[in-house]
């Protein structure tokens, strides 16, 4: 489950009560807290609760599986003094947990297991293997689940291994599997890379979230049916098995087609285009759990919608989903940020608060605690939000949680829309491609002010549509809590897109003068010094401090031996300079990829481009004559908080 990250809070777990040493909450987090409060569930000093799974028992006790191979049972989890008891141990990194018929069920790395307390002492004395699958020994062989179907069968998902790219090194890696209580296994779908989150809706339709990686341009959510191929071809190595529901082969998929995943799905019938895209670094970077709002309005005005955790950004997003011509699609919005660690699991408490289980070790996250357990509590106040965003054949219809100021909402200039896409290819991730501005031609606001019908030129099937409405206000005067939505448009009602095309925007190579990849002509004697910088796990360069002589001409070589994207940016003197550059990189939005996530700032002195995993880049830079402490930083969104080198100029 590779991860990509953002910046904000530094948290140290100091045991029961979880004292926090942190930067101030962001302005947005402060506004969100007026409606939804994040509450710590205290964790004893001696317990490393790296949450892998959460579930409530029939007695309203909270079961927690951990990456350290334990299952804890927490009594009174809503109180200030919860009671922890170890239920099981010695397991192999369970990243899921469920409860049924007085037994816990979980996916270890190599098996689906049932845990039962026969003698009633609060500890498991039966560890029953229901079904096992082979392991390669690769660190990336994560396994997730189970989720129960109404017939008692269980669903699990298996992560790909990692060998410089995702690979199915052992049987059924990259698959969704259905397993009966008796241990019969039925393969359902493949093309999965890092399927840490999946859920069934009321009709038992399966959705899963995916993380950026090879063949995966950005985070996304896909509706999976039997025989579906979700995009990563490594799992296709097992389609020759007699019980495989599809016969598509790895060699049937081109490594570089020049198409988007949506376009490629028109060529390959088995391929399922995503229902939702989460724009990488803009909305999320490492999607995890899915939680339907089944609270009946007791958690706010979003009944029936989906909440999506993000491990790297330590936040929860919200998704409105609709079915158009039998195809799922919809809009994603930010919801609440500022959690203490990387969100992996979310469940509803009996009081309709949301339990949020977190872990960061090895994956890193905005919230800097290594692990955490918190609750998200609604205070009953309604935020002003875009509640739903529905596709029309020539635009979108917005529904608001409160009546909108009709004079402002009726103006087309109150909205901006931009469509864009990602490449479908073997490479790790994708830049934003084929970006194009749309035109809001007209807006019709309903009499009650709760809906706005937008007629839009420039809509495109298979594209993500960013809608910004920064100027809207409710009749009460409050601005939208989250003013941007991202709609994934796969279909339109009636099947015929009537939106008029607009001219395509041109993004033809931005020239960045501070990216110097060739030795300057006046360096007649070459570089004075050669410095090689690499990476290490946990969002770190492989060196923390460098000392150089002022005025020296340096040939920097940046080797990205990590499994994620990075850059190398040299900033002016002072901690405030590097902090500001990191923050400015976050604000680049859709233009970030074209600019290598390097802001046009006087505080930037030199930089590389974005360097892909296993690649390197050289830059040539003359050290300033003024001595002091400068900084080298990775400005890929979310990396700047931890990925730094102090550059001391003597």
Distance between the termini: 42 Å
Globally, the shape reads globular
Radius of gyration: 25 Å
Percent of sequence in beta strands = 35-45%
Question: What is the count of DSSP helices, taking H or I runs of 4+ residues?
Answer: 4
Coarse structural class: mainly beta
Instruction: Write down how many β-strands occur, each being a DSSP E stretch of 2 or more residues.
Output: 44
What spatial order of strands do you see in the largest sheet?
20-21-22-23-34-33-29-30
Q: List low-pLDDT spans.
A: 1-23
Q: Quote the average pLDDT.
A: 93
Q: What kind of sheet is the major sheet?
A: 8 strands, antiparallel
Helix content: under 10%
Please explain how this structure is put together.
There is one protein chain. By secondary structure, the protein is mainly beta. The protein has an eight-stranded antiparallel beta sheet with strand order 20-21-22-23-34-33-29-30. A five-stranded mixed beta sheet has the order 38-44-43-40-41, with helices on one face. A four-stranded antiparallel beta sheet has the order 1-26-25-24, with no helix packed on it.
């Amino acid at each position: 489950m590779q991860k990509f990250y953002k910046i904000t809070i530094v948290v140290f777990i100091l045991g029961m009560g979880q004292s926090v040493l942190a930067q101030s909450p962001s302005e947005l987090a402060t506004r969100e807290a007026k409606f939804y409060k994040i509450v710590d569930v205290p964790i004893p000093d001696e317990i490393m609760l790296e949450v892998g799974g959460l579930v409530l028992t029939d007695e309203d006790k909270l079961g927690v599986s951990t990456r350290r191979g334990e299952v804890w049972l927490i009594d009174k989890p809503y109180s200030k003094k919860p009671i922890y008891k170890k239920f099981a141990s010695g397991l192999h990194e369970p990243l899921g947990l469920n409860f049924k018929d007085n037994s816990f069920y979980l996916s270890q790395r190599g098996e689906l297991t049932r845990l039962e307390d026969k003698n009633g002492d609060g500890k498991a004395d039966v560890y029953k293997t229901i079904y096992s699958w082979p392991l390669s020994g690769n660190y990336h062989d994560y396994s997730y689940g189970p989720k129960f179907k109404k017939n008692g069968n269980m669903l699990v998902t298996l992560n790909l291994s990692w060998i410089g790219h995702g690979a199915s090194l052992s049987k059924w890696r990259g698959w969704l599997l259905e397993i009966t209580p008796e241990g019969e296994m039925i393969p359902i779908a493949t093309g999965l890379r890092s399927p840490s989150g999946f859920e069934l809706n009321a009709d038992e339709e399966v959705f899963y979230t995916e993380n950026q990686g090879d063949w995966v341009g950005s985070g996304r959510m896909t509706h999976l049916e039997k025989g579906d191929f979700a995009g990563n071809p490594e799992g296709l190595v097992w389609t020759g098995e007699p019980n495989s529901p599809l016969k598509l082969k790895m060699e049937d998929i081109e490594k570089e087609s020049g198409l988007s995943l949506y376009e490629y799905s028109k060529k390959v019938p088995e391929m399922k285009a995503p229902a939702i895209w989460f724009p990488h670094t803009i909305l999320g970077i490492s999607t995890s759990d899915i939680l339907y709002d089944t609270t009946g309005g007791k958690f706010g005005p979003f009944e029936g919608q989906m909440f999506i955790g993000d491990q790297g950004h330590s936040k929860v997003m919200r998704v409105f989903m609709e079915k158009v011509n039998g195809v799922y699609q919809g809009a994603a919005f930010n919801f609440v940020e500022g959690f203490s660690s990387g969100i992996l699991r979310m469940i509803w408490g009996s009081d309709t608060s949301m339990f949020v289980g977190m872990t960061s070790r090895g994956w890193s996250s905005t919230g800097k605690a290594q692990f955490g357990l918190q609750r998200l509590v609604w205070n009953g106040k309604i935020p002003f939000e875009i509640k739903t965003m529905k596709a029309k054949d020539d635009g979108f219809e917005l529904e608001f949680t409160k009546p909108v100021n009709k004079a402002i909402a009726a103006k087309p200039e109150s909205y901006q829309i931009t469509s864009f896409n990602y490449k479908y290819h073997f490479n790790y991730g994708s830049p934003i491609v084929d970006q194009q501005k749309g035109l809001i031609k007209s807006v019709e606001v309903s009499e009650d002010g709760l809906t706005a019908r937008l007629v839009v030129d420039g809509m495109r099937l298979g594209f993500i549509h960013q809608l910004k409405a920064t100027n809207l206000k409710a009749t009460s005067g409050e601005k939208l809590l989250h003013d941007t939505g991202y709609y994934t448009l796969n279909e339109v009602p009636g099947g015929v897109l009537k939106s008029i095309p607009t001219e395509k925007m041109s993004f033809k190579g931005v020239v960045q003068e501070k990216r110097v990849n060739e030795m300057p002509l006046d360096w007649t004697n070459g570089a004075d010094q050669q410095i090689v910088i690499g990476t290490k796990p946990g969002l770190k360069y492989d060196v923390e401090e460098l000392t150089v002589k002022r005025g020296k001409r340096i040939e920097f070589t940046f080797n990205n031996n990590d499994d994620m994207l990075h850059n190398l940016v040299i900033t002016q003197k002072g901690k405030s300079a590097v902090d500001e550059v990191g923050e400015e990189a976050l604000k680049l939005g859709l233009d970030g990829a074209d600019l290598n996530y390097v802001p046009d700032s006087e505080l930037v002195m030199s930089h590389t481009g974005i360097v892909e995993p296993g690649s390197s880049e050289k830059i040539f830079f003359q050290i300033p004559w003024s001595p002091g402490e400068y900084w080298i930083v990775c400005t890929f969104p979310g990396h700047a908080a931890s990925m730094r080198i102090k550059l001391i100029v003597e």
